[in-house]
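Q: Could you fold this chain for me?
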Amino acid sequence: MASIRLSPEQEKRLNAVCAAERASKSEIIKQALNRYLADYEASLSPFELGRDLFGKYGSGCDDLSRNYKRRLKDKLREKHAH
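A: Sure. Below is the predicted structure, expressed as structure tokens.
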């Protein structure tokens, strides 16, 4: 649940749109928010959209892309040292 505060001018304009569209304020605001969110998401890169799915989140390590060779060498040394 969210609430917003509108300036008197915004309230007046919203009321005019609601009357013209025969829709409630909630309906008009939800439609506007959905359009804004769609535009915002369309402007994001694929990486930004999937940021929470990459790298450190699966492994717990936040430097895998920078230190993968060192990590691999360490694991191989550890494996063959026994």
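A (continued): Helices lie at 8-21, 25-43, 46-50, 56-59, 64-81.
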